[in-house]
């Protein structure tokens, strides 16, 4: 028996990690996992006509939540707060969990 | 041409890594990948009324299998064996693979 | 408001990392992330009757692209070029992104 849930994946420059974790906690998530990595991508910059591509150190923060509303709230808050000025992406996908009471 | 498969993701305290890998191998999986990370979450504790939240070192073990039955068998065995007493989650999602014979 | 996109996940021996990143860039992806890990799996070997299982250092390269065609093109090129002779897998899954213009 499995239950549908949502995973939010936030890939961001390492310097934003603590503040994004706070957004995740404030949204009511019961936990998250963090992986360090590297990457290459286009910075979101204020001037939208310009896109700077560079290599950077990053973290990927993954959060499982039971509702689409919570997933979208986290994703939108992170994107609005950080991704105009810092490199990063946020995306949501579907997962099946075993125990609903943990989320 | 792609084929549907299942990915099982197990996030667990590092001390359980070897034993969970044995569960994965015994279930007939042909391989797995392991990533080290950190996280914060609610421990599954025997006394269900109490939930301890703490930061901890973790590993994420990912396994691709061709059948839902194998995916659920791994997920259930891991959850039953470890997640009453240790922090961790297990979840399943859908992926498309290119070559069916590898799994 | 979210948009459907595809994530390509490439798990490969570390020595192939740079060349696979070049395939990803040539396919038109705007970025990718890389995580180091370890794993165990069956090598794809030219002689298909033989399968060597070994532990190895690996990287996981994740790429978000907006079209299924680009995702499959990357996956097929990587599989054809590397996975006859090196350990590794490539798979595709569905994700929802917030901002279509970044991909």
Question: Gist?
Answer:
3 copies of one chain form a homotrimer. With 103 residues, the first copy, chain A, is of the alpha+beta class.
Write the layout of secondary structure elements.
Three copies of one chain form a homotrimer.
Chain A: E1 3-13, H1 17-26, E2 32-42, E3 53-65, H2 68-82, E4 88-97
Antiparallel strand pairs in A: 1-3, 1-4, 2-3
Descriptive notes:
Three copies of one chain form a homotrimer. With 103 residues, chain A is an alpha+beta fold. Chain A has one domain: Alpha-Beta Plaits, CATH 3.30.70. Chain A contains two helices and four strands; from the N terminus they run E-H-E-E-H-E. In chain A, strands 2-3-1-4 form a four-stranded antiparallel β-sheet, covered by helices on one side. The longest helix of chain A has 15 residues. The radius of gyration of chain A is 14 Å and the shape is elongated. About 10% of the residues of chain A have low confidence. Chains A and B meet through strand 2 and strand 4 of A and strand 2, strand 3, helix 2 and strand 4 of B. Strand 2 of chain A pairs antiparallel with strand 2 of chain C, so a sheet runs across the interface.
């Amino acid at each position: 028996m499995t239950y549908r849930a949502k995973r939010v994946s936030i890939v961001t420059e390492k310097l934003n990690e603590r503040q994004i974790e706070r957004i995740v906690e404030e949204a009511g998530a019961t936990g998250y996992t963090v992986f360090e990595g590297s990457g290459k991508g286009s910075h979101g910059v204020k001037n939208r006509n310009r896109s700077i591509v560079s290599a950077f150190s990053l973290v990927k923060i993954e959060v499982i939540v039971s509702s689409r509303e919570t997933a979208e709230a986290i994703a939108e808050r992170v994107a609005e707060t950080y991704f105009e000025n810092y490199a990063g992406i946020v995306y949501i996908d579907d997962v099946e969990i075993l125990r609903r009471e943990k989320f």
